[in-house]
Amino acid sequence: MTSSPFDFRGYRVVVAGGSKGIGRSMALAFASSGAAVSVCARGQAALAETVEAIAAHGVPAHGQSCDLGDASAIDTYITHAAQSLGGIDVLINNATGYGPGDSDEAWLADFNVDLMAAVRASRAALPYLSASQHASILHTSSIAGLHPRPSTPAYGAMKAALCHYTSSQALLLAAQRIRVNAIAPGSIEFEGGMWDRCKREDPARYATVLAKIPFGRYGAPEEVAHAALFLASPWASWITGQTLCVDGGQQLNG
C-alpha cells in the first residue's frame, strides 16, 4: 500500500469483518494512517495475523472472535472494542454471508450478516459514536445491489437493502452529526478470495466477468480501502447518505 495522504491519528476505528480481503485492507489502511483499530472475525488464525499487522504500524490494536450473525455476540464485541480503544469514531460494517442461490439458507445468511449485522453493530456503537467529534459509519455494500443478478438474488437484495438503510440511517443520525455512507465494490480479487478461486476453478466465468469491467482488470482490496479513508476523513465532511461505487466502471455494464 502506498503512503496514505490522510491523518487519522486520534481516531478509533472498528472494522466488523476485518481479517481478510477488503476488511483487512481497510483495517491496515486506517492503521497506517495513525488510527487505533479493532477488528473482528470468526477465523482465529487470520484474525491474530491481522491484529499483529495492525500493531506493526505502532498503533493500538484489538481483535476479537465474533460471529456477526449472532446479535448478542455483536453487542459484546462492540463493547469490548470500545473499551479497548477508548471509544469509537468510525464503524465499518464489512461482513457478508454471501449465500448464493435462492434457498432459505441463502436468504437467512445474507439477511443476518449482510444487513442485520450492520444494523445491530450500528445500534451497539451509537453511544460511542454520539460522543465523537468526527463520527462516521461505513457499510460495505456491492454493485450486486444495484442491478438484478439471477445467480445471487438473496445477496443482491440484502446489499440493495443495505444501500437503502445507508440513506435512511444518514437522515436519522444527521442531527447527531454522525455521517453514514456505503461503498459498493465491484469484483475484487485477492489471494484466497472468491475471484482468486474462480480463476483456478472456473476460468470461463472469470473471463466473462473480466470482459464486463471497462478498466480491463479486477479490483484490489486496497482500492476499496482508499475510498473508505476518504469517506471517513474530514475531506468528506459534507457527504452523507451516499453509496460510492468502486468498480472500474463495472456496474455501468449492468
UniProtKB/TrEMBL annotation:
Keywords: Oxidoreductase. Transmembrane segments: none annotated. One of its GO terms (molecular function) is oxidoreductase activity. It holds the Pfam family adh_short_C2. It comes from the Bacteria. The keyword Oxidoreductase applies. This is SDR family NAD(P)-dependent oxidoreductase. It comes from Dyella psychrodurans.
